[in-house]
Amino acid sequence: MATNIEVPALGESITEAIVARWIKQVGERVATDEPIVELETDKITVEVPAPSAGVLSKQHAAEGDTVNVGDLIAEIDASAEASPESKPAASKSEPESKPAASEPESKPAASKPAPAASGGQTLMPAARAEAARTGVDTAGVQGSGRGGRVLKEDVQAAASKPAASKPAASKPAPARPAAPSEPGERERRVRMTTLRKRIAERLVQAQQTAAILTTFNEVDMSAVMKMRSSLKQDFIDAHEVKLGFMSFFVKATVSALRKFPAVNAEIDGDEIVYKNYYNVGVAVGGGKGLVVPVVRDADALSFADIEKEISRLAGLAKNNKLQLSDLTGGTFTISNGGIYGSMLSTPILNPPQTGILGLHNIVQRPMAVDGKVEIRPVMYLALSYDHRLVDGREAVQFLVHIKDAIEDPRRLLLDL
d(Cα 412, Cα 249) in Å, to the nearest integer? Predict the structure, then answer.
């Protein structure tokens, strides 16, 4: 009896996805709730689990195909037996079996339908068919697809190499290097992911629809670094999480948003929506690009709660496990380019939000302190804001408020 696998509901306003990767291939046995296929939307990547145990008997969509919610993409046969090729244990036992011993020469020739190339590279179905047609040994083919996947074009390029090398061998005089003439060496063309396309669309949208300005300031990190250093181990012992800088900036941001509510608002048509909740998005580098998971109700969280939530969201982002609910509902964003070594930048708004705070690397710089020059750890801050809603005076005062809170963390404890 066959069990149908359909594209599940992917979240509000999301109607289609791209088949990013088949985790299981036809003929492989799957267990209940075991991931079968990875779908990529314009916001998240979703793994579709098997509703029941059995053998994956059919795939109705190939990698790269666009599918809609509710589409049939695969079938599982509960009564079928897994194919020998899909059982790793079977290949190990083949030398002990009589049939395998009687056909040692047939195995190398049968490398054309192998589901994966050597080195752990995935061999795409079109590439497998092309290899069978041209007789190319895929073991030496380097994949140019996403994650090192071997594409049809890679096999075609490999098939053309021997032919290209013959004229060069017949002409020993012009000893020109063959590398520049080989296809794929100077350029590599790959399909833009849905997530990357959506990021590009939103960045252009932000530039075209908002009047974005950026104001800068610098902050002396001495007080925060001293406090963090002296209480680091106590904080870990008490809360089982490290005390980072981000919790200080989230707390300082919430304090500033309370004082300047326009920075926490958004424009909806000809109305201004002021929000009395503080969902702070924290931009992190995910497995498929930059994402902004949201720390919800940050005003109600302690330093430890903020650190735990950021750590949890960052882990999900790295493994492409974020849910749509993790990415929606933010009212303000913090982007920390400093972890990559950025000294200064102008962050772009995350629509429909009105402001985004950019953090940068901490560098020892000379500063005037009480009439004397001292070397202090300094970070540059950048606030990009929508000038349609936020005046320059408010933006500057907002950033100064954050600067004051970071330079004297006691203000955060006393809600100043």
Answer: 10
Provide mean pLDDT across the span 175-180.
Answer: 52
- Beta carbons within 10 angstroms of residue 244's beta carbon: 16
Q: Is the peptide bond before 174 cis (omega within 30 degrees of 0)?
A: no
Distance CA 163, CA 279 (A): 61
Task: Give catalytic residues, as residue numbers.
Answer: 387, 391
State the architecture of 111-171+178-191 in CATH terms. Answer: Irregular (4.10)
Show the tokens assigned to 49.
């689990």
CATH of 2-77, one of 2.40.50.100, 3.30.470.20, 2.30.42.10, 3.40.50.720: 2.40.50.100
Structure tokens at 38: 């990875």
Confidence of residue 107 (pLDDT cuts 50, 70, 90): very low
According to CATH, the topology of domain 195-413 is Chloramphenicol Acetyltransferase (3.30.559)
The percentage of residues in the chain with a pLDDT greater than 70, rounded to a whole number, is: 80
3-state secondary structure of 107: helix
Q: What is the pLDDT of residues 315-344, one digit of tens each?
A: 888 887 888 788 888 999 999 988 888 889
